[in-house]
Amino acid sequence: MTTGLRERKKLRTRHALGAAALELAVEHGLADVTVEQIAEAADVSARTFFNYFSSKEEAVVAADVERALVMEEQLEARPADEPVLASVRAVLREMVGGADERWRDVVRQVRLVRANPALVPHQLAAYATIEGRLAAVIARRTGLGEHDLYPALTAAAVMSATRAATTRWLAADGEVDLAACLDEALDLLATGLAHPPSRAP
Predict the structure, then answer these.
(1) Could you list the residue ranges forming a coiled coil in this record (predicted)?
(2) Would you call 65 exposed, middle or buried from its count of C-beta atoms within 10 A (0-12, 13-18, 19+)?
Protein backbone atom coordinates (compact mmCIF):
# COMPACT_ATOMS: atom_id res chain seq x y z
CA MET A 1 0.00 0.00 0.00
CA THR A 2 1.51 3.34 -1.05
CA THR A 3 0.41 6.84 -0.17
CA GLY A 4 0.89 10.07 -2.05
CA LEU A 5 2.65 13.17 -0.76
CA ARG A 6 -0.60 14.87 0.25
CA GLU A 7 -1.78 11.83 2.17
CA ARG A 8 1.59 11.45 3.93
CA LYS A 9 1.45 15.11 4.95
CA LYS A 10 -2.03 14.61 6.39
CA LEU A 11 -0.85 11.55 8.31
CA ARG A 12 2.08 13.54 9.74
CA THR A 13 -0.27 16.32 10.85
CA ARG A 14 -2.65 13.82 12.43
CA HIS A 15 0.26 12.16 14.24
CA ALA A 16 1.58 15.50 15.48
CA LEU A 17 -1.83 16.47 16.85
CA GLY A 18 -2.34 13.11 18.56
CA ALA A 19 1.14 13.16 20.07
CA ALA A 20 0.66 16.72 21.33
CA ALA A 21 -2.74 15.89 22.82
CA LEU A 22 -1.36 12.90 24.73
CA GLU A 23 1.72 14.77 25.92
CA LEU A 24 -0.23 17.78 27.15
CA ALA A 25 -2.93 15.66 28.80
CA VAL A 26 -0.31 13.61 30.66
CA GLU A 27 1.60 16.71 31.71
CA HIS A 28 -1.28 19.00 32.70
CA GLY A 29 -4.32 16.75 33.10
CA LEU A 30 -7.00 16.27 30.47
CA ALA A 31 -9.38 18.83 31.97
CA ASP A 32 -6.80 21.61 31.78
CA VAL A 33 -5.85 21.08 28.13
CA THR A 34 -7.56 22.97 25.32
CA VAL A 35 -7.82 22.32 21.61
CA GLU A 36 -6.00 25.61 21.03
CA GLN A 37 -3.03 24.40 23.11
CA ILE A 38 -2.89 21.12 21.22
CA ALA A 39 -3.03 22.89 17.87
CA GLU A 40 -0.30 25.33 18.92
CA ALA A 41 1.95 22.49 20.09
CA ALA A 42 1.50 20.79 16.71
CA ASP A 43 2.10 24.09 14.89
CA VAL A 44 -1.30 24.20 13.21
CA SER A 45 -4.47 26.24 13.68
CA ALA A 46 -7.41 25.21 15.83
CA ARG A 47 -9.44 25.10 12.62
CA THR A 48 -6.99 22.56 11.22
CA PHE A 49 -7.34 20.49 14.40
CA PHE A 50 -11.05 20.03 13.69
CA ASN A 51 -10.25 18.75 10.20
CA TYR A 52 -8.77 15.71 11.93
CA PHE A 53 -10.53 15.29 15.26
CA SER A 54 -13.89 16.18 16.73
CA SER A 55 -12.51 16.73 20.24
CA LYS A 56 -9.37 16.67 22.36
CA GLU A 57 -10.52 13.31 23.76
CA GLU A 58 -10.51 11.75 20.31
CA ALA A 59 -7.03 13.17 19.66
CA VAL A 60 -5.64 11.66 22.88
CA VAL A 61 -6.45 8.12 21.72
CA ALA A 62 -5.47 8.75 18.08
CA ALA A 63 -2.34 6.59 18.39
CA ASP A 64 -4.57 3.50 18.64
CA VAL A 65 -5.83 4.07 15.11
CA GLU A 66 -2.30 4.88 13.91
CA ARG A 67 -1.10 1.53 15.20
CA ALA A 68 -3.99 -0.10 13.34
CA LEU A 69 -2.85 1.49 10.08
CA VAL A 70 0.67 0.13 10.61
CA MET A 71 -0.73 -3.30 11.41
CA GLU A 72 -2.96 -3.23 8.33
CA GLU A 73 -0.06 -2.36 6.02
CA GLN A 74 2.19 -5.02 7.51
CA LEU A 75 -0.52 -7.70 7.31
CA GLU A 76 -1.10 -6.86 3.66
CA ALA A 77 2.62 -7.44 3.05
CA ARG A 78 2.70 -10.92 4.64
CA PRO A 79 2.77 -14.00 2.33
CA ALA A 80 -0.70 -14.66 0.94
CA ASP A 81 -0.60 -18.36 1.86
CA GLU A 82 0.46 -17.77 5.47
CA PRO A 83 -2.21 -18.68 8.08
CA VAL A 84 -4.00 -15.63 9.41
CA LEU A 85 -2.96 -16.04 13.06
CA ALA A 86 0.65 -16.68 12.01
CA SER A 87 0.59 -13.41 10.06
CA VAL A 88 -0.92 -11.55 13.01
CA ARG A 89 1.71 -13.00 15.36
CA ALA A 90 4.56 -11.98 13.05
CA VAL A 91 3.23 -8.44 12.67
CA LEU A 92 2.66 -7.96 16.40
CA ARG A 93 6.16 -9.26 17.14
CA GLU A 94 7.59 -6.75 14.69
CA MET A 95 5.54 -3.91 16.15
CA VAL A 96 6.56 -4.53 19.76
CA GLY A 97 10.16 -5.48 19.04
CA GLY A 98 12.49 -2.58 19.81
CA ALA A 99 9.60 -0.11 20.08
CA ASP A 100 10.15 1.10 23.62
CA GLU A 101 9.03 4.67 22.86
CA ARG A 102 5.84 3.52 21.14
CA TRP A 103 4.86 1.23 23.99
CA ARG A 104 5.80 3.84 26.58
CA ASP A 105 3.05 5.94 25.01
CA VAL A 106 0.68 2.96 25.19
CA VAL A 107 1.26 2.82 28.95
CA ARG A 108 0.73 6.56 29.34
CA GLN A 109 -2.46 6.45 27.29
CA VAL A 110 -3.91 3.48 29.18
CA ARG A 111 -3.25 5.18 32.51
CA LEU A 112 -4.78 8.40 31.24
CA VAL A 113 -7.93 6.60 30.09
CA ARG A 114 -8.24 4.85 33.46
CA ALA A 115 -8.02 8.21 35.22
CA ASN A 116 -10.46 9.96 32.86
CA PRO A 117 -13.73 8.09 32.18
CA ALA A 118 -14.59 10.70 29.53
CA LEU A 119 -11.93 9.09 27.33
CA VAL A 120 -13.49 5.61 27.45
CA PRO A 121 -16.10 6.11 24.67
CA HIS A 122 -13.40 7.53 22.40
CA GLN A 123 -11.10 4.61 23.03
CA LEU A 124 -13.94 2.17 22.38
CA ALA A 125 -14.65 3.98 19.10
CA ALA A 126 -10.96 3.66 18.20
CA TYR A 127 -11.07 -0.06 19.00
CA ALA A 128 -14.12 -0.46 16.75
CA THR A 129 -12.27 1.26 13.90
CA ILE A 130 -9.23 -0.98 14.41
CA GLU A 131 -11.36 -4.12 14.53
CA GLY A 132 -13.15 -3.15 11.33
CA ARG A 133 -9.90 -2.52 9.47
CA LEU A 134 -8.46 -5.80 10.71
CA ALA A 135 -11.58 -7.68 9.61
CA ALA A 136 -11.26 -6.10 6.15
CA VAL A 137 -7.64 -7.27 5.81
CA ILE A 138 -8.54 -10.78 6.95
CA ALA A 139 -11.44 -10.87 4.49
CA ARG A 140 -9.14 -9.90 1.62
CA ARG A 141 -6.53 -12.49 2.64
CA THR A 142 -9.10 -15.29 2.85
CA GLY A 143 -11.26 -14.31 -0.11
CA LEU A 144 -14.30 -13.87 2.14
CA GLY A 145 -16.66 -10.95 2.43
CA GLU A 146 -16.03 -8.29 5.08
CA HIS A 147 -19.34 -9.17 6.73
CA ASP A 148 -18.75 -12.93 6.81
CA LEU A 149 -18.39 -14.39 10.27
CA TYR A 150 -14.79 -15.62 10.02
CA PRO A 151 -13.11 -12.23 9.37
CA ALA A 152 -15.31 -10.46 11.92
CA LEU A 153 -14.86 -13.10 14.62
CA THR A 154 -11.12 -13.46 14.03
CA ALA A 155 -10.60 -9.69 14.18
CA ALA A 156 -12.65 -9.42 17.37
CA ALA A 157 -10.76 -12.33 18.96
CA VAL A 158 -7.36 -10.90 18.00
CA MET A 159 -8.31 -7.49 19.41
CA SER A 160 -9.53 -9.03 22.67
CA ALA A 161 -6.39 -11.17 22.95
CA THR A 162 -4.16 -8.17 22.32
CA ARG A 163 -5.94 -6.06 24.94
CA ALA A 164 -5.83 -8.89 27.49
CA ALA A 165 -2.12 -9.48 26.87
CA THR A 166 -1.33 -5.76 27.10
CA THR A 167 -3.34 -5.44 30.33
CA ARG A 168 -1.44 -8.37 31.84
CA TRP A 169 1.86 -6.83 30.79
CA LEU A 170 0.94 -3.48 32.33
CA ALA A 171 -0.18 -5.12 35.57
CA ALA A 172 3.14 -6.98 35.83
CA ASP A 173 4.98 -3.62 35.81
CA GLY A 174 7.82 -4.77 33.59
CA GLU A 175 8.28 -8.21 35.15
CA VAL A 176 6.97 -10.03 32.07
CA ASP A 177 7.77 -9.58 28.40
CA LEU A 178 5.08 -8.03 26.21
CA ALA A 179 5.94 -10.23 23.21
CA ALA A 180 5.66 -13.32 25.44
CA CYS A 181 2.23 -12.17 26.68
CA LEU A 182 1.05 -11.66 23.10
CA ASP A 183 2.42 -15.06 22.07
CA GLU A 184 0.60 -16.76 24.92
CA ALA A 185 -2.67 -15.02 24.06
CA LEU A 186 -2.43 -15.97 20.39
CA ASP A 187 -1.48 -19.54 21.30
CA LEU A 188 -4.69 -19.80 23.30
CA LEU A 189 -6.67 -18.53 20.33
CA ALA A 190 -4.95 -20.91 17.95
CA THR A 191 -5.52 -23.99 20.11
CA GLY A 192 -9.01 -23.06 21.28
CA LEU A 193 -10.32 -22.12 24.70
CA ALA A 194 -12.10 -25.33 25.64
CA HIS A 195 -9.36 -26.35 28.08
CA PRO A 196 -7.47 -23.81 30.20
CA PRO A 197 -3.69 -24.22 30.39
CA SER A 198 -2.41 -26.09 33.43
CA ARG A 199 -0.81 -23.95 36.10
CA ALA A 200 2.66 -25.02 37.16
CA PRO A 201 2.81 -26.01 40.87
Answers:
(1) none
(2) middle
In-domain check, residue 197: no
CATH number at residue 40: 1.10.10.60
CA atoms in the 13 A half-sphere facing the CB of 31: 3
Q: Tens digits of per-residue pLDDT, 126-160?
A: 889 889 999 999 999 999 987 899 999 999 999 99
Helix H or strand E segment including 3 = none
Same-domain check for residues 44 and 65: no
* DSSP string for 79-142: -TTS-HHHHHHHHHHHHHTT-HHHHHHHHHHHHHHHH-GGGHHHHHHHHHHHHHHHHHHHHHHH
Q: Do you know the residue count of the chain?
A: 201
Calpha distance 129→119 (Å, rounded) = 16
